[in-house]
Request: fold
Amino acid sequence: MLKFSTAVLALASASSLAAATHDIAPGEGAQERLQEALILAEPGDEIVLAEGRYVLTDGLSLDVDNVTVRGAGMNASVLDFTTQQGAGEGLLVTSDNVTLRDFAVENAKGDGIKSKGADQIVYHALRVEWTNGPDAGNGAYGIYPVEASNILVQDSYVRGASDAGIYVGQSEDIIVRRNRVVENVAGIEIENSNRAEVTENLATKNTGGILVFDLPALPKVGGGQVLVARNAVIDNNTDNFAPEGNIVAGVPSGTGVMVMANKGVQVLDNALVNNSTSHVMMVAYTQAFDDERYEPRPVDVVVRGNIYGSGGNAPDFEGGQFLAAAFGGALPPVLTDGLHQNLSVEDAVPVVSLGLTEVGQPFTQAQPQLVQPAADGAIAALPAVVLPAEMEARLK
Amino acid sequence: MKGAGLLALGLSMVAFSGAIGGNAAISQLPTVNDVAVLGGMPRALSEFGFFSDMREQSGSHDVIPYRLNTPLYSDGADKLRFVYTPAGESFTADGDGLLQFPVGSALIKTFAFGEGDKRQLIETRVLLHRADGWLALPYRWNEEQTEARLALAGARIPVTRPDGSQISYRIPNKNQCKTCHSKDGEVVPIGPKARNLSADWLALSEQTGELASIPQVERRLPLWEQRDEVSLDAAARAYLDVNCAHCHQPGGGASNSGLDLRWEQDDPHAIGIRKPPVAAGRGAGGHAVSILPGKPDASIMVHRMNSIEPGVAMPELGKGTIDPEGLDIVSRWIAEMGQ
Reply:
């Protein structure tokens, strides 16, 4: 009898330790039921969103480590924030080792999905969309991990963000791959971050396809070691619909890949087609700043192995049309403001420099010229970004 | 020696709590349920035993009311604040900063609209100091005003304010409590900083043994209702410290913005002067910087304070209406900078 009780006890404790599944269905009270599951989940648990549309009035949040939120597919389980009345984002994650997969977030009033300080996060096969398409009234970022290490964003779709579709800020060890970013101001933006790989994405119909920026006076500055490789960056000619005041509001329509500041950016083996300002652009930060840590110029940049289609035929900056005319109707595919340090363009395409000599000098003082930038010495390949193996294992 | 002066302290609090049973003998006051403070997630507020009279919001033994000089705006709700420290324990000061409460302590805040018999209690938020840190829990009052129930997922309820205006009042969920109350990933109290408490309250707390010793406070936040008697700078900076800095500081929920609105921050760029936005999105409202001296209408800070639209409105949580008083002070402060 004693033996039997012990066995029962062991069984009971084993089952209470096992990961639980919380099944959530759309319908009445979805806001409270889903939020309560997100709060009461224990590490290891999975929250499963049944197929259907979840009408939500307030932001959701997750603050438990090692939880998976899984839907029935990016078009099947839809978190609909069209009637959202509060909070700055649709879903906020503030815990580590979280996996978000196979659901959609629609029409969030602020950002779509934000994770802050959430290490080892996986965003997989999500759809974040503002269904009315480009509109200054849409939320800023679609997928928005910030201040974290080990970030994987893959196989997702973001449309309509009034800032960046996928924005990774002030983070390190980042992989953004196989996503489709369509009709955002910036398709993908890596900002003030280190060791990032942006690969095999389709960036199309954005204002700018892929941006790699570093800004001064933030808690983390000095971004770099960013690989932009094997992406299709096509037709990014949507008028800039970002609200003024934001850094991306200054991105010209027709930008393929843009590098601002940063140390160590490699633009390799991309297909760059029909971006009407410039396929690859390198510029220094133009505004005044007071930050001793900050390097405003792009440093150690490699451009190699890319395929260039038509483009540069309608440069979206002051005097751009005249400049294009001077080059026979289209700007050369690679453009630098002239302030780069150690730029190596190894593709057999013309490179135009605006010939600026000082950081902050206005573009009106440009002295455009063709240049052949070469590095002072060989720039080594970037080391591969290696995420913890368990992150990929979660998706198996 | 705690307890001897408690009655005196309680009586002195009547002025602003309006709720202390002044003639109740201390020995007759119920005591707080320390077990509930230290563990579990009680489903009902009454389980804590914080109140001798729930409806009247009269504190139990060792449950002491306090007020903040400058309070957080919460859609115009009145807030009844209490601190509880376990028998035989006291809290300590940390300079002019946050009081340090021993494990087993609780901070209790009830949100209410209206006065007297018409006072409607909406929610009570508790912060419990447990062995593994602080835990924040929201409780929603029932219509009969007899009990408040745990609302882990928060709630949105229609409220008619005393001026007749109808609002959609949001009770935050447990995670949203943490969003504001987190610093470096840990839940911490926000309000009871020595610099935002009156010297009288601190002195009384010391006399009764609740507070170990009175801290030196060089610059105290002004009393909000007396804001016109201090400089615009002091009033505005106090307002920003209390309403914004819990997120907008290093280690806070909005640390990535680079905006630091703490009372003690004196770097003009850090408090937003001519600072471009980072991730404001459409919250920027077409403006280039957080604060443009002399131009409140061209300052993102004013634009966001003057909005109730999610994605634009600041603060992001706990606000469904614009605070006209705060907006006025901050706007005039920015306008004055241009002179």
Q: What stands out?
A: The first helix of chain A runs from residue 2 to 17.
